[in-house]
Amino acid sequence: MAARRLFPVGIGTDICRIPRIYRNLICDTSVKFVQRILTPEELKDPVTKRILKCVFAPLDEPVTLPPKSLKGPRNQAFWRAAEFVAGRFSAKEATIKAYSPRKLLLHDVIITREAFVKVPSSEPSEKDESPSSPPEEPENHSWDYYSGNHLHAVSRPVAVIKGNNTSEDVIAPISISHDGDYATAMCMVFFDGPGANQAASQGTNQDTSQDTSQDNSQDTSQGTA
After folding, report:
1. Pick from 57, 64, 196, 216: CA 20 to 30 A from residue 210's CA?
2. How far apart are CA 180 and CA 116, in angstroms?
3. What is the pTM of this model?
4. pLDDT per residue over 132-179, tens digit each?
5. The dihedral of CA 164, 6, 172, 106: what is its sign?
6. Contact present, 11 and 187 (Cβ < 8 Å)
């Protein structure tokens, strides 16, 4: 059956169980686990530092980790951190599935806010100039702010796909949501230029998700073994 492609676009989605991340954050290898998912740029973000303070605190001062059993009461600080990391992990996986031109790894994707990304002047932008400084954070942080939904409140969340020797950095809109024990994310990549249709048709979501899920699962599991 012949059909005409309306526009070259890639779509990816992912879902992650928060208890799985929580279990990895309360173990002795929690720092390595987080570093395998988040890039150095993401770890420098003030909001990320505040949310993950409970994870990195043992490096500066001794603390008592919560019990590893998930049957008892959850440690709220570690649970909020788990929600945040689960949302970021899902967003990265969704981006990897949506971007088919090349195989991406977790550290090839940076989840941030659109206001923090410098857009070349030749490209259209809603604002005439990029803000000289990041938007101020709300004084009263709600649960949604810590879970990652603050990305929507401050500025539109985006995934920055790092370029390589043949391509430059590109951004793609994402959406992150939390419900109970699950975090889910969606990413949409628009391809432009002469080879847009070919780029959009390279590979399949199924092949990409299978490859990246196996690689990323292996990477994150090694940090918690």
Report:
1. 196
2. 29
3. 0.70
4. 445 454 444 433 434 444 444 457 899 999 988 888 889 999 999 999
5. negative
6. yes
